[in-house]
């Protein structure tokens, strides 16, 4: 667990039946929430203040959340929120320029049960496009996600790979 407080909490052990909306409505009683992100059996919840996040952490570290025994911790900071320091930094502060990269996801269906994410990423690369990220769906077997850096790359990958016999995949 990170040693300092944060506005962002990590919840592990969330039931598959709980939706982002359900979690948002339930935790909103503790304060303003700016983001809820659900992934498989865990979630990240970003509060507007550290005080609100601390209250939720203290409340649910020893009791069930929505009927589930969960692990609640302060989340590690997002990479985009961590400032990098150089050894030769000057005393003048420079304005931080934040570059936002959008990723364009593609859903892949019909994957074999024994496929690994590395094989799925190689499959995405076989389209000739750069793959930003990929993962296998932990809830629905035979489904995976490949994210590309541009909409055009995603479109070309779908055109190139749809119905490919390597895994007999299809794109919805």
UniProtKB/TrEMBL annotation:
Residues 7-77, 104-172 form the RRM domain. Pfam families: RRM_1. One of its GO terms (cellular component) is cytoplasm. Keywords: RNA-binding. PROSITE patterns: RRM (PS50102). It comes from the Eukaryota. The keyword Nucleotide-binding does not apply. InterPro entries: Nucleotide-bd_a/b_plait_sf, RBD_domain_sf, RRM_dom, RRT5_SRSF_SR. One of its GO terms (molecular function) is mRNA binding. This is RRM domain-containing protein. It comes from Pholiota conissans. The lineage of its organism: Eukaryota, Fungi, Dikarya, Basidiomycota, Agaricomycotina.
